[in-house]
Each structure stands twice: as structure tokens, then as C-alpha cells.
Amino acid sequence: MMISNLPSSVRIVEVGPRDGLQNEKQVVPADVKVELISRLADAGLKTIEATSFVSPKWVPQMGDNTEVLTRVLAQPAPGVAYPVLTPNLKGFEAALAAGAREVAVFGAASESFSQKNINCSIAESLERFRPVTEAARTAGVKVRGYISCVVGCPYEGAVAPHKVAEVAATLLEMGCYEISLGDTIGTGNPASVRRMLEAVMRSVPVDKLAGHYHDTYGMAAANVAASLDMGVAVFDASVGGLGGCPYAAGASGNVATEDLVWLLHGMGIATGIDLDRLVDTAAWISAQLGREPASRVARAVLAKRAQARSAN
Ligand code: HMG
Ligand code: MG
Q: What pTM, to 2 d.p., does this model score?
């Protein structure tokens, strides 16, 4: 891999409170979600996806969306954006009523995944997103676009790069300011991610792309490195490596935010994030959920701290 034109800084979109928690079987109280978001802002995250305005029948964990967003927006951290997912106009209207200033629509490059996740075809989903982007424009709300299954689908296997490019071009044309490319099941590797990015970059400028890589097979950091090399400078990540998608069985969390920050800082790329505070947050939310942080970096930092304490 050739690491050549590295960006001097990267923007990290923290998706832990949404992508991280949406698949949790135990009910996570709104208090914990609100505190998690506040701790992430204290660690230096400037974009924190707070919740999703999807059907509570489909994703019960996000059923407290209005309470969470309203409470977060009652005391917003300076300069922090709190986007939320909105699959349709109903979700958008609820998000707007709760005070959202940024939303995200989410489609897929695989027909089967689109059906399982949002109960419609890719074409139908794009028609559903159009009124959302129009209403958002009228309300002065920013819209991000997600595409799931950009390299692999749990139902269809390998996904053709041109499919991703087609959906990405439509989302851009609709007015999405950024397209986040989701390796939902983490089966991508630097070669397949590179092929996918090459296809997408023929229709969408690289400064409008973000990488959203799940770490199911431990390839997320490698896929970030390959994407950096291609000029991508925005990455989604989940504190503590929390998460998965309820409609992609076996998929694990996004690249852990700590792993991403460690990688980027080690490469001399600024993020504005305080790694120690982030590790504290990973340890805190993991304890709330009754487990150890999944992230290698959090574990290593915590082990080093424990060693230093026992040496003193
Ligand atoms: P549907 O059942 O086809 O919707 O669901 P419908 O329009 O036929 O409505 C059926 C019922 O749902 C009605 O209520 C609606 O009012 C209600 P009823 O009359 O039966 O009482 N409804 C809603 N309620 C609350 N909020 C809404 C809403 N819309 C309809 N927004 C729908 C279609 C899209 C709503 C459903 O399939 C859904 O909620 N899916 C969400 C799935 C989801 O959240 N998946 C995880 C997020 S995506 C992801 O994780 C991938 C990503 O991270 C990138 C990656 O990693 O790949 C982004
Ligand atoms: Mg995801």
C-alpha cells in the first residue's frame, strides 16, 4: 500500500450512541445515552450521532429518540453537531420537532439488505429520501447519506462497486453533503475497499466521502489506511467498538474510536480528540453494559495504566 498524500487532519463522526447501541439487547436508559454523548463531547468529538428516528417496532432500543435528542440539545457542547438517522418523512418530522439540525438518510447497495433493513427496494428508498432532503433544505437542516453493504452483503455476498457508485451519485444529486460508505459486515479489505472507492470517486468527489467500516474481521483499521491513501479524510467510529446492525446477523461494531484515534495520531494526523478521555469513556460505557471494551487500544491503555499504578 502506498501512503502518499495523507491529510493533516481527519474528521471523526462518532456513531457509538446510535450504531453502537442500536443492537444492544438490554435496555440502555436514556440517562446513560445522554451521559455517553456528553462524555464523548468532553473527549473532543465534534460530530456525535445521537440516535435514530426509526420505527420503535423495528429498533426498540432507539425508541427514546425524542427524549435523548431533546435532552442533549438542551445543553449542547459548543461546536458539536448531533446528527440523527431519519429513514422517511415521518422520522424527519419527529427529528425536526425534537430540534435536530442535521439528519442522515440511509440506503444500501444491495437489494436484499435494503428490503431487510428498511422494508423497500433501493429505488423505493431513494424515492422516500427525496422528500426528506427537500423538507430538510426548506428547514435549513443538513443531510448526510449512508450506503450500506458497499463491499459485501450478508444475503448476497460480494457487491459490485458500480452499484455503490450509482446510489452515491443519486444521494449527492439529492443534496446530501456527504456520503458515508458502510462496510456493514466488515468483510472488506484494502483491495476491495480501494476498488469500491475508485468506482465511487468517478461520480462523487472524495471530499464528500466518508468511510464507515465495521470491524467484524479486524480489517477496519486496514480499510481506513487504504481509504486515507485514496484521499478520504472523514471516518465514522464507535467508542469502545460498540455495535452492529440489527439486520446484519453477526456483524460487530464499527472501528473503535480509540483504535482510529491511535492509528491517526500515530501517523501524524490530527483529530482534536483526547485519547485518554476517550479511553475513560470507552471503559465507562462498557462498564454500564457489563463488559470490557472491545477495542484493542482501550484495553492496552487500561492495562498500561494498571501496570503503572501497581508499580507505584
Ligand atoms: P415499514 O413498516 O415499512 O413502514 O417500516 P410503514 O411506512 O409501512 O409504516 C408502518 C408503521 O411504522 C406505521 O405505524 C408507521 O407510522 C410507523 P402503525 O400505523 O403500524 O402504528 N413508522 C414509523 N414510526 C416511527 N418512526 C418512523 C416511522 N416510519 C414508519 N420513522 C421503516 C419502514 C423504514 C420505518 C422501518 O423499516 C425501520 O424503522 N427501519 C429501521 C431499521 C434500522 O434502524 N436499521 C439500523 C440502522 S441502519 C445501519 O445500521 C447501517 C449504517 O450504520 C451503515 C452501515 O453500517 O452499513 C447506517
Ligand atoms: Mg453501521
A: 0.97
